[in-house]
Design the sequence.
């Protein structure tokens, strides 16, 4: 079954109380990205695509942002709502579908890495459509080591730069320094500004 199939994700979130990538809390790289100079004066409206059980979205909300958590799987959205209530606006939808919502920032942790390689460009186009001009795309958990067929799918810093630069101005692209111990040395981070 393909990761493009909603059933793939529904089955995982319905049958697994804590999927292997779920750390039970927000990723430490969220704070690392938000501490970057380029990210210190962003607007208040943020979205987390592929929010899963909502830990990162909830952490952004606790930091004062107005946050929407989006996931393909209804079971994920229900799990996020059970854990964090109305702290975040939770939405079950396909990120690739047209949307009227526009945000100041996107925080992406594992969603881009879960995209099959031939869908990465289309995924970034969908991100660009949901950002106001000058909006930020912050992303992490790009597994910079070779992995078996995903998700997640391995990628390099150079691959990310080639994909991101036509749509965004890259402000930061480097290895993470505050990864969870299980992911130390396997993550890098990107902060980019939408050129639109």
Sequence:
């Amino acid at each position: 079954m393909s990761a493009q199939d909603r059933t793939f994700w529904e089955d995982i979130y319905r049958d697994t109380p804590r999927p292997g990538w779920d750390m039970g809390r927000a990723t430490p790289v969220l704070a690392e990205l938000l501490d970057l100079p380029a990210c210190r004066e962003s607007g208040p409206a943020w979205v987390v695509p592929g929010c899963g059980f909502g830990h990162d979205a909830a952490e952004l909300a606790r930091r004062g942002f107005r946050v929407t958590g989006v996931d393909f799987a209804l079971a994920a959205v229900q799990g996020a709502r059970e854990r964090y209530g109305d702290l975040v606006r939770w939405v079950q939808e396909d990120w690739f579908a047209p949307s009227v919502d526009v945000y100041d920032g996107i925080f992406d942790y594992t969603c881009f890495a879960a995209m099959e390689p031939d869908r990465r460009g289309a995924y970034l186009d969908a991100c660009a459509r949901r950002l106001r001009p000058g909006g930020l795309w912050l992303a992490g958990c790009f597994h910079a080591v070779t992995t078996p067929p995903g998700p997640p799918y391995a990628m390099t810093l150079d691959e990310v730069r080639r994909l991101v630069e036509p749509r965004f101005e890259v402000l930061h692209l480097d290895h993470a320094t505050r990864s969870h111990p299980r992911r130390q040395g396997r993550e890098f981070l990107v902060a980019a500004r939408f050129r639109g």
Remarks:
- The chain has a mean pLDDT of 87.
- The beta strands are 45-49, 66-71, 89-92, 103-109, 131-140, 168-175, 188-194.
